């Protein structure tokens, strides 16, 4: 039995040797060489992948860094451009405001201004509602804007009245340019007044200094050929009342009266010349009707 087993084993060994002596391997590399190449290829791919990930990460960080810088810059510019200061002068008072360049604005009763202090070196612009006297330092264009016109100066003293539909500018020193919304414009010399009327045209007249001084000294309302509706608006602001009407008030008013009068006394003086009267709806509300 032992001899038979040995014989079979020899036959199997012979067959394997015979097989490999006939069949030629396709690759001449050893197993160790093949595994070495595979490992080298894996390491190369890993390195390439790492480089790709590193490059992508660097590009991403660079992109977000640039984006953050742009957002920060934009935020800074917007802050500089739109950060504003507003000043309001209550009824019956005056308020002087110093602007960043040393220019001074004296606000009259129930008036306000808004300006942009952080943007002042780029644009000297003031938005005005009401009436104010300006003493402007020399420099770049100084602009006073309102709902119905704007005034451009370099360095001068002037007064601007901008209430509701009325826009009037008086020049005291230097020269000022007045521009209406319809782009009509005039240049004023000292002691002249420009008034923008309803159609955008500009009416120029000589400034009556004595009359204005008398008005301020005696605490008077003084009106000369002023539309009645504008006079009523002035009365509303001064007395802090509301005046309504369901009839036409297309009149021009000329007259003067003391600011010490009551609101009802003032309304009598305004209504009587035109055959009008009024009803007191409450302590602060009045309605004008035909007499």
List the helices and strands and how they pair.
Layout: H1 2-22, H2 31-82, E1 85-89, E2 95-98, E3 104-107, E4 111-115, E5 124-135, E6 142-146, E7 149-153, E8 157-163, E9 166-173, E10 176-180, E11 185-188, E12 192-196, E13 202-206, H3 209-217, E14 220-227, H4 228-239, E15 242-245, E16 252-258, H5 263-271, E17 276-280, E18 285-290
Parallel strand pairs: 5-6, 15-18
Antiparallel strand pairs: 1-4, 2-3, 3-5, 4-5, 5-8, 6-7, 7-10, 8-9, 9-12, 10-11, 12-13, 14-16, 17-18
Helix pairs in contact: 4-5
Describe this structure in words.
It is a single chain. The chain is an alpha+beta fold and 291 residues long. The chain is built from five helices and 18 strands. It folds into three domains: 29-82; 85-207, Jelly Rolls, CATH 2.60.120.1440; 211-290, 3-Layer(bab) Sandwich (Phage tail protein beta-alpha-beta fold). It has helices spanning 2-22, 31-82, 209-217, 228-239, 263-271, and strands spanning 85-89, 95-98, 104-107, 111-115, 124-135, 142-146, 149-153, 157-163, 166-173, 176-180, 185-188, 192-196, 202-206, 220-227, 242-245, 252-258, 276-280, 285-290. The strands form three sheets. Strands 1, 2, 3, 4, 5, 6, 7, 8, 9, 10, 11, 12 and 13 form a 13-stranded mixed β-sheet that branches. A hairpin with a 4-residue loop joins strand 17 and strand 18 (285-290). The longest helix is centred in the first third of the chain and has 52 residues, at 31-82.
């Amino acid at each position: 039995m032992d001899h038979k087993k040995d014989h079979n084993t020899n036959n199997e060994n012979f067959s394997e040797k015979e097989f490999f002596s006939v069949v030629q391997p396709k690759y001449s590399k050893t197993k160790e060489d093949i595994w070495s190449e595979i490992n080298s290829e894996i390491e190369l791919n890993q390195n390439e992948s790492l480089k790709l990930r590193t490059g992508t990460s660097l590009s991403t960080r660079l992109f977000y860094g640039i984006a953050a810088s742009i957002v920060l810059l934009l935020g800074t510019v917007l802050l500089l451009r739109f950060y504003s200061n507003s000043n309001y002068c209550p009824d019956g008072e005056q308020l002087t405001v110093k602007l960043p360049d040393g220019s001074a604005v004296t606000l009259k009763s129930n008036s306000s201004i808004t300006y942009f202090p952080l943007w002042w070196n780029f644009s000297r612009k003031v938005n005005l509602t009401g009436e104010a006297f300006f003493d402007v330092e020399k420099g770049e264009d100084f602009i006073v804007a309102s709902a119905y016109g704007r005034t451009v100066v370099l360095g001068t003293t002037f007064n601007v009245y901008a209430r509701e539909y009325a826009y009037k500018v008086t020049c005291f020193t230097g020269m000022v340019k007045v521009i209406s919304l319809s782009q009509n414009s005039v240049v004023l010399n000292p002691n002249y007044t420009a008034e923008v009327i309803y159609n955008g045209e500009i009416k120029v007249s000589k400034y009556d200094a004595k009359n204005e001084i008398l008005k301020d000294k005696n605490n008077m309302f003084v009106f000369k050929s002023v539309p009645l509706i504008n006079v009523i608006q002035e009365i509303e602001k001064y007395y802090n009342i509301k005046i309504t009407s369901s009839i036409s008030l297309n009149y021009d008013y000329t007259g003067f009266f003391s600011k010490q009068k009551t609101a009802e006394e003032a309304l009598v003086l305004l209504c009587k010349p035109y055959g009008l009267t009024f009803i007191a709806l409450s302590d602060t509300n009045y309605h004008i009707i035909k007499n």
